[in-house]
From TrEMBL:
Protein name, entry field: Uncharacterized protein
Keywords of this entry: Membrane, Transmembrane, Transmembrane helix
Regions crossing the membrane: 37-57, 77-101, 108-128, 161-179, 191-208, 237-255, 296-329, 336-352, 392-413, 425-442, 448-467, 499-518, 680-700, 712-734
Region Disordered: start-end pairs: 1-28
Superkingdom of origin organism: Bacteria
């Protein structure tokens, strides 16, 4: 197998299809145009498919065109999409495969084609709906509004305020730009986020030893299997882009590839296995970069990590795991000082900046440690049980996509191993996120986060299931190497490559259709209508000095998120509480009792989205919404203060004499309590960070032989690190166990 030059460059050699063809003298222009069809046809088909898709979704409903949202059923948006939309997606995907079949790395065209497919898949909701999708996006907009209005965050109101980086950044930008309405931004954030994710992921793909077909097919897979919907207006969606950029910088500027070593005779199975792994051809590229450039990128790397740490709870741990794993597998040239440096940033932020949160929630912070089976159950079986039969197909489609991408990744890994290639970085990116199962269930969503963070590695390996060969070397070679086998090759390599291309295209088409089911399967209750937003705006107009909003739930629980566009304004004035409802819509006694026991200015919000959620996930009758509203209207104890086709707002007709409207929540709270050793810990933190950072700069100059200054810095950093961690532990014990109510 020829791999020498491929390992150094990883660049495909243009095949015959990429060489310019000089038409014979006097050849008709039409004939010359047809000979050049491989150049102009793919972009033309992509543009045609894009225009067809936009028209299919934006025009008024009719045969094979337009979307009638009232026709959406338990399968979600796919049940209402017109036939022209499916034809447009098919056209764009086929144009993409026509391009990669040419054995040329037409970067800008391929990036444009994948961006067009991303627009079709991830921008569908923005084209169909008039309001931003996903109810939690509205509460995040409320966080931004609160910070912009008050100039501070308050973990007393919500735990997410303890990680306010994303919300504070958006508040600063929008206030500086004079933007007060985030509706348009929220509407298009899913699409913009996925387009943003493509940039660092493509850079990651440029660091692996693979053919053009494998790289760009991995990029396509990354788009069509990203169904979990964490790309909405959220800190998670923002920090996921930071995570991808972090990994891309590690592989591009700090990547390390050791020369291939011949397997040495060794005793014992483990030693023989390790020797065989060291003898594999590296699946990654290394680049020589000047010390000055690497120093600048190191500072950027730290800046990205600090931003993620201040914005989200899980992302920095994923970044830290990727860095540590790459160093351990000898795929990163950074020293062990960096994991300790960055780990200390996470611990310091949790200890010193989120005290108001964890001082009253120690069990919530650490209670899920080690509960792997419980965390897994809360993310799989619990989400299928009790679902509507048709909607259960949506949940099964999601699990099916996960199973397919993992099966393809395993197949790709094996096919690369048969060619003597060790893809350590891709395998690491796939496996490291699984360790998060031992942390906590994260509100029953840790499985979704693990899937999202495992996608980069999974998509790279899955692409190898179809295109496992290495890029060729030499200017006149074929586009990829042919693996050496003990037996004679039975099939023509050109034929097998064409078959692989057809199988990859079929896989992409099937996954793209499954994506529409998995991503938009909850559209009946995740879609937000103008009427629901208007009902909440009525509450905002009547929330002085404070108010309460009751939302419908089938069971009382801590992790039940309101299925209403809640919290968009006045987050500090309104409290949101659950009210239990019965499958029998005429039973409204629980609602009346809850309103009677609540303080003045309490509103019950009934909406189409809540009814759809109850119907699809908890077996409520299909006409429950209408009959429930009739029962509420018939009650002499209630009065309807606002209503439209999609939502209604109710309150008591006569408030109890003792009902009072409480004052808003005290935003200050107890403050950041200190401990006796806190000043010592802060001083040790600064000293440890300075020494570790200086040590890493010294190692950038000479990674193999640390200078005397490096040894001195490590003697300073080690005790300072130990003291810092000890004080952090002391703060958890003193503040957490001696909490003052």
């Amino acid at each position: 197998m020829t791999t020498g030059t491929a390992e150094a460059t990883g660049v495909d050699t243009p095949g015959p299809a990429s060489r310019p063809v000089t038409p014979p003298t006097g050849e008709p222009r039409s004939a010359a145009l047809m000979r050049a069809a491989a150049t102009w046809l793919p972009p033309l088909l992509t543009i045609e498919g894009l225009v067809m898709y936009v028209l299919a979704l934006r025009v008024s409903p009719g045969p094979l065109r337009g979307v009638d949202v009232t026709q959406i059923d338990g399968l979600g948006l796919i049940s209402a999409l017109p036939g022209a939309a499916f034809a447009a997606i098919l056209l764009m995907i086929m144009a993409f495969f026509v391009t990669i079949a040419q054995n040329t790395d037409r970067k800008f065209l391929l990036l444009f084609q994948i961006s067009a497919i991303t627009f079709a898949l991830h921008g569908a909701s923005a084209l169909v709906n008039s309001e931003p999708r996903f109810h939690t996006a509205y509460v995040h907009a409320g966080f931004v509004e609160f910070i912009a209005r008050t100039g501070e965050s308050s973990p007393i109101l919500d735990a997410r305020f303890a990680w306010p980086g994303f919300f504070a950044l958006v508040a600063f930008i929008t206030r500086a730009a004079g933007i007060t309405d985030l509706t348009t931004i929220m509407q298009w954030t899913p699409l913009l986020s996925n387009l943003l994710y493509l940039l660092p992921f493509v850079l990651i793909l440029r660091q692996v030893v693979a053919t053009t077909r494998a790289r760009w097919f991995a990029a396509l897979l990354f788009v069509i299997v990203q169904w979990i919907g964490q790309d909405y207006f959220s800190a998670q969606g923002f920090t996921y882009a930071i995570y991808l950029a972090f990994v891309a910088i590690l592989l591009r500027w700090f990547g390390r590839v050791e020369p291939r070593q011949a397997p040495m005779p060794a005793k014992g199975r483990l030693r023989r296995l390790l020797a065989r792994l060291d003898g594999l051809t590296p699946g990654e590229l290394s680049h020589s970069t000047a010390v000055y450039d690497r120093s600048i990128m190191l500072i950027l790397l730290i800046g990205l990590f600090v931003t993620a740490t201040a914005s989200h709870q899980i992302t920095p741990f994923m970044m830290l795991g990727a860095l540590t794993g790459l160093i351990l597998l000898r795929r990163c040239s950074l020293s062990w000082a960096m994991p300790f440096f960055l780990g200390l940033i996470v611990l310091a932020w949790i200890s010193y900046q989120t005290t108001t949160f964890w001082s009253g929630h120690i069990e919530q912070l650490f209670g899920g440690l080690g509960r792997i089976l419980d965390n897994l159950q809360s993310n799989t079986g619990d989400r299928i049980e009790g679902s509507d039969p048709k909607h259960a197909l949506v949940l099964m489609a999601r699990l099916g996509i996960c199973a397919v991408i993992l099966l393809l990744a395993a197949t790709g890994l094996l096919r690369r191993l048969r060619r003597g290639v060790g893809d350590r970085a891709a395998l690491l990116l796939l496996c490291i996120p699984v360790l998060a199962l031992g942390l906590q269930s994260y509100g029953g969503e840790i499985g979704l986060r693990i899937y999202m963070f495992a996608l980069p590695g999974a998509c790279i390996l899955a692409a190898y299931a179809f295109f496992p060969n290495l890029p060729s070397s030499g200017a006149d070679g074929a586009d990829e190497t042919v693996p050496i086998r003990k037996r004679n090759i039975r099939f023509d390599p050109r034929l097998t490559r064409r078959v692989s291309l057809l199988l990859a295209a079929a896989c992409a088409l099937v996954l793209s259709m499954a994506f529409l089911v998995a991503r938009y399967g909850n559209e009946q209750f995740e879609r937000v209508s103008t009427g629901e937003v208007a009902a909440m705006h009525y509450v905002y107009e009547h929330d002085e000095p404070s108010a309460r909003v009751l939302y419908l739930v089938p069971l009382i629980g801590e992790e039940v998120t309101p299925t209403i566009p809640w919290g968009e304004q006045d987050f500090d004035k309104i409290r949101y509480e659950q009210v239990l409802v019965d499958k029998n819509p005429v039973v409204v006694s629980s609602v009346i009792d809850k309103l009677t026991l609540s303080p003045g200015n309490t509103y019950l919000v009934v909406s189409r989205g809540q009814a759809a959620y109850l119907q699809l996930n908890h077996g409520f009758p299909a006409d429950w919404d209408k009959r429930f509203r009739v029962a509420l209207d018939s009650s002499k104890a209630l009065k309807r203060v606002y209503s439209n086709q999609d939502a209604a707002v109710y309150t008591l007709r006569a408030q109890p004499p003792a009902a009072q409207i409480p004052e808003p929540v005290n935003l200050r709270g107890p403050g950041d309590r200190s401990s006796p050793a806190t000043p010592i810990g802060l001083a040790a933190l600064v000293l440890a960070w300075a020494a570790l950072f200086a040590y890493q700069l010294v190692r950038l100059r000479d990674a193999d032989r640390p200078a005397k200054a490096g040894r001195v810095l490590m003697w300073i950093a080690a005790p300072a690190f130990i003291v810092s961690v000890a004080v952090i532990a002391e703060r958890f014990i003193v503040i957490g166990l001696n909490q003052v109510p």
